[in-house]
Write a structure and sequence with these properties.
The protein is an alpha/beta fold and about 525 residues long. It has helices at about 1-5, 35-55, 55-75, 75-85, 90-115, 150-165, 180-190, 205-215, 225-240, 260-275, 290-305, 325-340, 370-375, 390-400, 415-425, 460-465, 490-500, 505-520; strands at about 15-20, 25-30, 120, 130-140, 140-145, 170-175, 200, 220-225, 245, 250-255, 285-290, 345, 360-365, 380-390, 405, 405-410, 430, 450, 450-455, 465-475. A seven-stranded mixed β-sheet has the order 12-13-14-11-10-16-17, sandwiched between helices. A six-stranded mixed β-sheet has the order 7-6-5-8-9-19, with helices on both faces. Strands 3-4-20 form a three-stranded antiparallel β-sheet, with no helix packed on it. Bound molecules: nicotinamide-adenine-dinucleotide (NAD). The site of nicotinamide-adenine-dinucleotide (NAD) has 30 residues, from helix 8 and helix 9.
Length: about 525
């Protein structure tokens, strides 16, 4: 907690929040709830540290970010264990997130220089020939990263690594449900030798996040719910600070009649229940062609029933706990609403005995579009399945949602799958797979509609962290024809230019050329 003490006046007298292990209810630790004063101090320190970090250049930052990657590798076992204890996910999934964090750090450390190299622009207008024109990219300054609890390190690191590699300082506000992982990341950054202030962690709840959004930062990267994202977007826009919003989803799976049923069932079960369904891009609703609905549902149920639910530290566990009691109650409310409206529960459907907050993988059929489980984000281990008559009905249902985060398609005909993918209103569409792009630093992702604004990952994600500056050099430095003073035939000259460049026939273009030459100054 040294960083907190250094950057945060009065941090020791602040109220605290407690982090719990959702599998046991055990207290893991407490952190201060920082307010505007502490957040302001962290942002001020970041701003002070920014110019030296920017001026270190890509090579200098590459070395520091690879040192952070190496530090994470050295501590991978403790970090993965804390991940499982604080968030609940099985240890293998936690270690997969650590691997993805290392991938993001290594990718941006090694490739930011190439991805942000000056971009020459060849201007075709003959009146602007002999210009050297290019775009150059510059770090913005201080980037605020506000992150959720479901993939606390991975989702934060995807933005932190891009922001730092581009030359920005970062202030991270981790979720109040997984604050210790955020604090751990701050400790690793110090151990790796990142300069003071370049990466600070401010702990707390929504009030701390609001204080960070209101602080003088240069970009806000928010990942979380639509409700909070809307507030964050409005608060940032009040100061015209650009935002990236990575928000919730209600992601459909479309299973075509030619799909391999065992494979599709395996994919649906993984897509719906990994991280206990607490994934923004999990399979939240499945539309299955009626010709295959019965056998496919039977296979899905068999696989869902076989999943081992338990404490993520147990190597046999496949599905961990929900994050907390309110999450459990939200899932119960969706199931109760669906059952009251006529849905049938084929497996699961009842919370498991405590002390942890466990809910088993649950498959629902006879669901209808008016049920909460088909409209609201579930963010838990429910898989409602609807049988549909054809592809058109599948597509219409998939797109009939205010969300547009991602979708999966299951088919043996890859061309048909790609045609369908182009018609789905979502930022990512996976064919015969799902979710993998989230851990891959090369694949930009983001939401359509209410699922968000902007991209994370790849070059698109890096471009969110920089200002693009146009530099236009008139190499010979001669006065332009349109500079003062004007001359009488100037209108004819420009009008002839329109004909030359945009005339609808060769005749018009040639006649324009004649007038153009005649009307020159
Ligand atoms: P949340 O919106 O409750 O909280 C996210 C973060 O915002 C937390 O750190 C929280 O403290 C902070 N916050 C709360 N109020 C704030 C305010 N007024 N100003 C600034 N910050 C504030 O979300 P959550 O429950 O942590 O995460 C679950 C949600 O995140 C789900 O909807 C899920 O789909 C979404 N999510 C999206 C993605 C994506 O990449 N699109 C990834 C993961 C999760």
């Amino acid at each position: 907690m040294q960083e907190l003490d250094r950057t945060t006046p009065g941090a020791t007298e602040l109220p605290t929040l407690t982090s719990f292990d959702p599998a046991t209810g055990e207290v893991l630790g407490t952190v201060p709830i920082m307010g505007p004063e502490q957040v302001g101090a962290a942002v001020a320190l970041a701003r002070e540290a920014f110019p030296a970090w920017r001026d270190l250049g890509f090579e200098g930052r590459r070395r520091k970010l690879l040192a952070l990657r190496d530090t994470l590798v050295r501590h991978k076992d403790d970090v993965a264990r804390l991940y499982t204890r604080e968030n609940g996910k099985p240890l293998a999934e936690a270690m997969t997130s650590v691997l993805a964090c290392c991938d993001f750090l290594a990718y941006y450390a090694k490739h930011a220089a190439g991805l942000l190299a000056d971009e020459p622009i060849h201007v075709s207008n003959p009146l602007q020939k002999n210009h050297e024109t290019f775009l150059t990219y510059e770090a913005k300054g201080v980037v605020a990263v506000i992150s959720p609890w479901n993939y606390p390190l991975l989702l934060a690191m995807a933005e932190i690594s891009a922001a730092l590699a581009a030359g920005n300082a970062v202030v991270l506000k981790p979720s109040e449900l997984t604050p210790l992982l955020g604090v751990k990341l701050g400790e690793l950054a110090r151990e790796a030798g990142l300069p003071a202030g370049i990466f600070a962690v401010v702990t707390g709840d929504g009030r701390t996040g609001a204080a960070l959004t209101a602080a003088p930062v240069d970009r806000v990267c928010f990942t979380g719910s639509v409700a909070t994202g809307t507030k964050v977007g409005q608060a940032a826009m009040a100061h015209l600070v650009p935002v990236t919003l990575e928000l919730g989803g209600k992601d459909p799976a479309l299973v075509l009649p030619d799909a391999d049923l065992d494979f599709a069932a395996q994919g649906l079960v993984w897509g719906a229940f990994t991280n206990a369904g607490q994934v923004c891009a999990s399979v939240e609703r499945a539309y299955v062609h009626q010709r295959i609905a019965e056998p496919l549902i039977a296979k899905v149920v068999e696989r869902a029933k076989a999943l081992v639910v338990g404490n993520g530290l147990d190597p046999k566990t496949e599905v961990g706990p929900l994050i907390n009691q309110p999450a459990l109650e939200r899932i119960e409310a969706q199931v109760a609403d669906a059952v009251a409206k006529g849905a049938r529960v084929l497996t699961g459907g009842q919370r498991l005995p405590g002390p942890g907050t466990f809910y088993p993988p649950t498959v629902l059929v006879d669901v209808t579009p008016d049920m909460l489980v088909m409209q609201d984000e579930t963010f838990g281990p429910l898989l409602p399945i609807i049988s549909v008559p054809d592809e058109a009905a599948m597509l219409a249902a998939a797109n009939d949602s205010p969300f547009g985060l991602s979708a999966t398609i299951w088919t043996a005909d890859l061309d048909a799958g790609k045609r369908l993918a182009r018609q789905i209103q979502a930022g990512s569409v996976w064919i015969n797979t799902g979710l993998a792009s989230y851990g891959n630093p090369l694949t930009p992702r983001g939401g359509y509609k209410e699922s968000g604004i902007g991209k994370i990952g790849g070059r698109h994600g890096l471009l969110e962290m920089v200002n693009a500056k146009l530099v236009d050099v008139a190499v010979h430095g001669k006065p332009k024809l349109w500079w003062y003073p004007t001359w009488p035939a100037m209108v004819d000259f420009v009008s002839a230019g329109v004909d030359v460049m945009h005339g609808s026939s060769i005749g018009q273009r040639l006649s324009g050329l004649g007038k153009f030459l005649k009307s020159r100054r």
